[in-house]
Amino acid sequence: MKATPNDGKESSWVYSGRVWRYGDNINTDIIYPGIYLEITDPAEMAEHAMTGQDDRLVQGARPGDLLVAGDNFGCGSSREHAPLALKEAGIAVVVAGSFARIFYRNSVNVGLPLLVCPGADKAIQEGDEASVDLERGQVTNLSTGAACAGIPLSEYELSLLAQGGAVARFRASLGSDTQR
Amino acid sequence: MSQGMTATEKILAEHSGLSRVTPGQFVNAKVDMALANDATAGKIIARFREIEVERVFDPEKVVFVLDHYTPSNNIASATVCQETREFTQTAGGQLIEVGKGGIEHCVLPERGLVLPGDLLVGQDSHTCQHGALGAFATAIGVTDMAATLALGEVWLMVPTTLKFQLVGQTDDWASGKDLALFIISQIGVDGALYRAMEFSGETIENLRMDGRFTLCNMAVDCGAKNAFIAADGVTDEYEKGRAKRPYTKVNSDPDAQYEKVYEWDVSGLRPQVARPHIPSNVVSIDEAERVPVNQVFIGSCTNGGLDDMKAAAEVFAGRQVHAGVRAIVIPGSQEVYLESLRQGYIESFIEAGAAVSTPTCGPCFGGHMGIVAEGEVCVSTTNRNFPGRMGHSKSSIYLVNPAVAAATAVAGYLTSPEEVLA
User: Which of A119, B47, B196, B306 falls between 20 and 30 A from B172, CA-CA?
Assistant: First the structure.
């Protein structure tokens, strides 16, 4: 049975939007500076997304935009605020050459889709329009036509994202004792 | 044909009720301890409530430590601490209060709350530090933690293991911190991505416990899932008077499979410096530029131990912090603080003109107790130096060991202990 997104989109794992482009080793102090960790309101958290580097994303991002980065995206702290702030700021998918471990888990758990696609940051410039297919693992630069092949998400990850993240899944598992 | 397993694989298998596991396999592992702190306790509690479970899976196996923004630096922080106290009373769990503990990773081993052979998950990236005790210890996020508090288990993918076999005696002024920085410089900040880092060899066997903690602390800063040093006589000695239950010393099998084995002779390794703005930008102290500094910070989970206070005190004793420099020293725990007082280290710090504070993570992550302004240079014994880590995004951070930090505070610029002691 195929996992499907439940966010009102038609039944596909394809996202298209304007790209915000970053380099390698974008760490969580950049994605969400430590001084803001006490903020709990998601809308307020969104105001600080990527401000460790600059405020261009919080100034200009619109829902459905994409973030494309180089290697080791999300390295550093385990703060779940990082993927959450990006999601709240409107980012629909993060594409990177590779992801840091804790950030990857956190992102799947909060329901922010990710795609590993080495070289995507070379095929795409800031401001380009791009399209991401999570099932095929495909990234396409709609402005230039360039394409990049990434690693398709597993059924496990797609189902977790479709359910809206880990908490929804855990609530379901507490209801049934069979899953061990 | 039964292939040997690494220590990490053994601990994961044992906690998952399996006779063996292999890298890449997903397991549901039971945890011996779940650790959280005030930086994210509020969010964990909120997430826990979404699951609609009333009590944590086992109050003895849950601990909340108030350390990041404490003593509370503003109303938001005070409110989170208040919620955390109420939560441990209603839903269960131990609370390590301000004044009665210290930084989470310093306190847990002191209290025997994590032991060799244990499986510990923590909502903090430097949870990997506890691998120094021969435990499996890894970081998870808020949502994972909320689920673990309810269920008492966590899903994990079994990592491959990188083995680091180190021989040789480092320079007198070099220690666990310098081994960590050296390794990061060799493999990069993602050189151990998703892997277990297993440290062995005579260099490791000769490391005191504090040095082992420091080395394992920075495993996450190479991207690792966990770090591991097999428990031995040094560990047993450390555990005397601390462990309140039996523990298991786990060793990798002789025929265990490693993804890669690094064999390095670190004889004479000098103190290392991670220059701005990434922990892998490392040179020896002898090659580092004598850059003038504004702030020096000695402390954090990475270097807040008694050996670290001692090393700094040896340099500060009888000397003065340079005019124009502010030095801040924060012992990692009340136990370390008290012993540092008894040994005269605190006196050396204060007489030198350094500020000494109650244990807190504070300056390390730009929380409080020593934030830096635009253009400032900070030399620090912490674990990350990305832009903005300790304050303004246009400040610069150099990561060093405590003796180098103290020497820098005295000289007014980044320098080695020998230059100041001469």
Answer: B196
pTM to 2 decimal places: 0.89
Q: What is the pLDDT of residues A116-136, one digit of tens each?
A: 999 999 999 999 999 999 999
Searching chain B, which residue's CA lies closest to the CA of residue A168? B51
User: Above 0.85 for ipTM, yes or no?
Assistant: no
Phi-psi region at B146: left, alpha or beta (left = phi > 0; alpha = psi -120 to 50):
alpha
Longest dimension (CA), chain A: 51
Dihedral angle of Cα B109, B115, B116, B117, to the nearest 10 degrees: -140
What is the per-residue DSSP string for B171-205? PTT--HHHHHHHHHHHH-TTTTTT-EEEEESHHHH
Please check whether residue A78 touches B, CB under 8 A.
yes
**pLDDT tens sequence across B392-414:** 989 999 999 999 999 999 999 99
Q: Which DSSP helix (H) or strand (E) runs through B26?
A: strand B26-30
Q: Where are the domains of chain A?
A: 14-175
Instruction: Give the torsion sign (CA, B291, B292, B295, B297).
Output: positive
- For the domain spanning A14-175, the CATH number is 3.20.19.10
CA nearest to B47, candidates B150, B198, B190: B150
> Which of A155, A170, A173 to substitute to test the interface with B, most B CBs within 10 Å?
A170
Calpha distance A62→A71 (Å, rounded): 24
Three-state DSSP state, B342? helix
B138 contacts: CB under 8 Å, gap ≥ 6: B120, B121, B122, B127, B128, B156, B225, B226
The answer to whether the CB of B387 falls within 8 A of the CB of B376 is: no
Determine, for residues B384 and A29 on separate chains, whether the beta-carbon distance falls below 8 Å.
Answer: yes
| Residue B126 in tokens | 């430097």
Contact A38/B69, CB-based, under 8 Å? yes
Domain(s) of CATH 3.30.499.10: residues in chain B: 7-249+256-264, 276-421
B378 contact residues in A (CB cutoff 8 A):
none
CATH topology of domain B7-249+256-264: Aconitase; domain 3 (3.30.499)
Phi then psi for residue A151, to 5 deg, are: -95, 115
Give residue B32's identity as a one-letter amino acid code.
Answer: D
Q: Residue B122 in contact with residue B140, Cβ under 8 Å?
A: yes
Give the confidence band of A1 by pLDDT, cuts at 50, 70, 90.
Answer: very low
Closest CB to A35 among B53, B140, B367: B367
